Amino acid sequence: MIKGSLVALVTPMTSMGDVDWAMLDRLVELHIEAGTSAIVAVGTTGESATLDNDEHLAVISRVVRRAGGRIHVMAGTGANATSEAVALTRAAAHAGADSCLSVVPYYNKPTQEGLYQHFSAIAVAADIDLYLYNVPGRTVCDMLPQTVVRLAEDVPNIVGLKDATGNLERARWLLGHLPEEFVLYSGDDATALDFILLGGQGSISVTANVAPALMADMCRHALQGNVNEARIINEKLMPLHQNLFVESNPIPVKWAMAELDMIQTGIRLPLTTLSNQYHDLVRQALAHAGLI
Q1: Domains plus CATH for the chain?
Q2: Cα distance between residue 225 and residue 229, in whole Å
Q3: Could you report the per-residue pLDDT of 152-202, keeping only the tens digit for each?
Q4: Annotated binding residue at 292?
Q5: Smaller CB count within 10 Å for the chain: N or C?
Q6: Rg of the chain over CA atoms, in angstroms?
Q7: Active-site positions?
């Protein structure tokens, strides 16, 4: 079971929008050195929606090769077509990913039965651990807790959930009804600490891109029950948790990373670079965390 800070890794790009492979290698090394528990490659923060299929799988393969078994690699392989999600998940398993993260299908708004059959089909088709990802604010479809429990009980290789609802009452309910071995990760940085203190196993974090060591330390303290230490770190990070979402993710986090000379400024349309009106807000959050 992977516990702690799992980074929802950005896909670094040049100013022309090409994948920056050398920088991707550097980011993998950075997270290994900082104590990050796992790398989530090509999730929402990794601009999965703007990478073509070959690029998507090439980024996963590159991260797997660079990681070299030193850190868990979770591949983002979700899609709104079940057949595409199956193909991506199989390919990620073949590339050597340790697990896959599959988002609730977006735009087509399936029923709860459709969600159950979608994720069951993916899990049955691929010999790899599968983590569900519920983020209704982006998919406009909410996988209800009862559906998560049904999948957890019925499908052996569906082993966890990234819950990005920010709803702690839902997290409490899930923790009380899911099998003990099923893993729950927060997908909402602002509530991640409280999520872990309720019994969650960690956070799949955007903030970890800019503050990997701080997020790793915060999650470690929370998991060990060192509440005061965890809250002190989280207070330093809270402006980042909030201000890295002033525009659609990953716009602010990529801008912040460029400010820290961690990556170049590249981002792909229809996403654009951070609006000028938010620059000082994000800089202030970086300063509050002691990063500038």
Answers
A1: 4-233 (3.20.20.70)
A2: 9
A3: 999 999 999 999 999 999 999 999 999 999 999 999 999 999 999 999 999
A4: no
A5: N
A6: 18
A7: 133, 162
Would you say 50 is a known binding-site residue?
no
Q: Which tokens hold the place of 128?
A: 């790899």
Q: Which residue has the tokens 């392989």?
A: 77
For the stretch 61-64, contacts whose Cβ atoms lie closer than 8 Å and that sit 24 or more positions apart, written own/partner, are: 61/95, 61/96, 62/21, 62/24, 62/25, 63/9, 63/24, 63/28, 63/39, 64/95, 64/96, 64/97
Tell me which amino acid residue 139 is.
T
pTM: 0.97
Q: Return the number of other C-beta atoms located less than 10 Å from residue 197's C-beta.
A: 15
Exposed / middle / buried, residue 155 (Cβ in 10 Å: 0-12, 13-18, 19+):
middle
What's the rounded Cα separation, in Å, for the pair 289 and 214? 9
What is the spatial distance between Cα 258 and Cα 241, in angstroms, rounded to a whole number? 17
Q: Are strands 72-76 and 4-8 parallel, antiparallel or unpaired?
A: unpaired
Helix residue spans in 96-187 (DSSP H): 112-125, 136-139, 145-154, 168-177
Report which secondary-structure segment, H or E, holds 230.
helix 227-243
